[in-house]
Amino acid sequence: MIETKTPSKLEKILSSGHMAVTSECGPPRGSNPEAVTKKAELIRNHVDAINITDNQTAVTRLCSLASCIHLKMMGIEPTLQMVTRDRNRIALQSDILGAASFDIHNILCLSGDHQSFGDCPTGQNVFDLDSMQLIQTVRLMRDEGKFLGGDGIDRPPQLFVGAAANPFADPFEIRVPRLAKKVAAGVEFIQTQCIYNLDKFELWMKQVRDRGLHEKVYILAGVTPLKSAGMAKYMKNRVPGMDVPDEVVHRMSGVSKEKQAEEGINICVESIQRLKEIEGVRGFHIMAIEWEQKVPEIVERSGLFPRPKIEM
Amino acid sequence: MRLQYPEAIRIIRVPCTGKVDILHILKSFEKGADGVYIVGCLEGDCRFDNGNLRARKRVQQAQALLDKIGIGGERVQMYNLSSGEGPLFAEIAAEMTAKIKEMGPNPLKEALKKQAA
Amino acid sequence: MIVAEKKPIEEIIEEIKDYKKILIAGCNECVTVCEAGGKKEVGVLASALRMYFINNGKKMEIDEVTLERQCDHEYLEEIRNQIGQYDAVVSLACGVGVQFMAEKYRRIPIYPGVNTSFMGVTEERGVWTERCQGCGQCILARTASICPISRCAKRLLNGPCGGSTNGKCEISKDLDCAWQLIIDRLKELNRLDDYEKLLPIKDWSTERAGGPRKVVREDVRL
Description:
Number of helices of chain A: 11
Largest sheet of chain A: 8 strands, parallel, barrel
Number of strands of chain B: 2
Number of strands of chain A: 8
Strand content of chain A: 5-15%
Number of domains of chain A: 1
Radius of gyration of chain B: 15 Å
Distance between the termini of chain A: 19 Å
Order of helices and strands of chain B: HEHEHH
Oligomer: heterotrimer
Structural class of chain B: mainly alpha
Shape of chain B: globular
Strand order of the largest sheet of chain B: 1-2
Strand content of chain B: 5-15%
Helix content of chain A: 25-40%
Strand order of the largest sheet of chain A: 1-2-3-4-5-6-7-8
Helix content of chain B: 40-55%
Order of helices and strands of chain A: HEHEHEHEHEHEHEHHHEH
Structural class of chain A: alpha/beta
Number of domains of chain B: 1
């Protein structure tokens, strides 16, 4: 497919045709690095790279870059999530260089949840760039070795560039054109929103294939194991852009409370099995929210273990 | 019908309660009125569609403002009745008079007296 | 128009309570249309303040005036002969008018009587909504005449974000998703293909970011 352009292990795994597995950790609301390193330790042998979220849901946390550096020092490959909500183009480029100076090789470009959801709803937002323009910026810095201002960069960043895609958000008709737009901006891998509505995802993937986009970008299907029927209902009703079909909610509430967690894992594993069969799905992004200890079980039961060894 | 209503009430005729402005209400108090009430047609029966609904909104605006400046929003009220309801008109007049008597005079009058002294 | 909201009367009282003679100055333009600072609102505020101060045993003289505009010299000049007799002015014009009056009458304190909100439209009686943030480099030609800078909570030039649900913004069910509106209109105009044109990184130097702005027209300057 695409020649590798960076030293990213994730890129190498994808380009060599393996199904990739990524996961993510949210940094703590404090400065204790163990909150990240302990979670990462639990899953390091079962995933190829770990995303570190960037002040997710607009709640102030330990920064993504510092957390990524902790992972890097443990010998784990991080994916730096970067939202355009909090930083202008000076700060974004500066943090990209900071990441590059620690040889961080993956970045996920996002706009970020609106600050009204977080702990600083009275704060200012920035949005100097949007997620697509951040993709363009990273590609410019990497491929042309230039800053947005036009000057050259000494030792340009070597970042494998990712973005998110939500196949379920509205309006559905532009969901594939939107992906095409991100591809045109230069995105190289996509991690999707959590998939519960597999029928709708298959329809989206068909449209993706019809436009040949699956040949231009690695798509990692996002999954999140449900811990309880309550969580299923919450995701269905409260989380914007989330599509949880009734049958999933029924299946979760159809078993006793003690068995719901297990049922959530079962659904997740079955989803991965089905998603694996879809042409164009090149891996999985497992977002086990504060439930990282379950990632190894999900990876193993889905037949995605052991992870491929890549010569770096 | 010759119905009696309290003589403290001065009637100001308007073509429609929609004509009543919040300024008319405020000026009444500035000039010493102890209370003001607007009697409009039944809601839904306005010849001009929503004159009486506009009046109700203005009464609410005046109430909020009078509360904030310490005059008392309760001194302004909105009533609706049809033209055939003479006895109700008299009843409302009595009710409003009683309410205002209970609240006492417009505090501005007392304050002005003190200022003059 | 510039849309403003009346300041709470308590706030105005707090600012002016130590003066003895005040002028309330309205403006006949935008703030009249959005019912925040026209002649009517001047009358209401003046009346309420008079009653408040009498009721609180304080002598306060309050006069009223409403100018055609407070953002042009000639109308502000109309009060030059009378303004000297006041301790302070409460201007019900937008922030522009308050400042311009203060620039002109340097020895008299001018207080704002409204909160200036945004540039917008009267969507219906009593409902005003934002349409423009004056970025100085209009992109409406590229966005089906719907402005994502003023109407998208994230100002996304290439939206919508993943939070758009049933046509509404993730921050409020009462707020239309600007990008849904753009896409709907592109469809109506048979131009949905335009959606895939990437909007480039914006030059924000013509916006607030570039510092206070100035338009000079030599061709009309005297």
